[in-house]
Amino acid sequence: MTIDLHTHSTASDGTTPPAALPRLAAEAGLTVLALTDHDTFAGLAAATAAADIEIVPGVEISCRLDDAEVHLLGYFVDPGHAPLAAELELIRTDRFGRAARMVERCRELGAPITLEQVETIAAGAPLGRPHIAAALAAVGVTDAFTSDWIADGGRADVPKHVLSTVDAIGLVRAAGGVAVLAHPRSVKRRAEVSDAQLAGLASAGLAGVEADHPEQPPEVRARLRQVAAGLGLLATGSSDFHGDRKPVRLGEFTTSPEVFAALREAAVSVS
Questions:
Q1: From residue 171, how far is each of 41, 73, 224, 240 by CA, in Å?
Q2: Cα separations (Å) of 152 from 27, 158, 191, 252?
Q3: Are 34 and 8 in contact (CB under 8 A)?
Q4: I need a labelling partner for 68 at 20 to 30 A (CA). Which of 20, 40, 145, 154 fits?
């Protein structure tokens, strides 16, 4: 088994349609793929219908941990679980209003973009900062993810509705799934998740941490595996594939069959 547990499609901020993702995964030698679009299951049915490989129902939920934003991966969840579905709908609804306010701030800062342009770029996916960044790039802003523009806390940034990470873990477990913290020490994020914070999340029901990830260098990956072992957490590996939006390939990092089996078993135990 070759397993990639973190991928995105055009249902969120990827560039590959969900129906095409399984074929690309199979061509890359994968036998198991988790579709983990941001705050939505919209691409899951198309991906599952097109698949000759196992598709794990997943989602990546934006959360708040103390003063920082983190992302939680939910696996083997029931997409129809009403409380989780309602919370994801609230997050997506807030995305539109947030995007509209960010576009207005960009215009006030001199970038002549429109909400209609951003919606065209998103092509029906939930609006997010990558879509605004693409609109900004089209008018000459080459690095939108800076404090001058739409980075966290930037001049055009707007706070968004987010769950606490503990609450998100509870929702994933209530929906019959298991929760894994995504890229907790990515070099591209402003704040690292500390050992103490990981211990607290483990106590709240976290099942694992994404140790092997393109944005975490080897020494960080080794440290995360060590911390995970000490806390009784599983250590996963994934590509965080976004199609053409990020320079990573499907299966660039993978999860061992043993860890995948343990995740599946943990999901069964909470169902």
A1: 15, 12, 24, 22
A2: 36, 8, 11, 27
A3: no
A4: 40
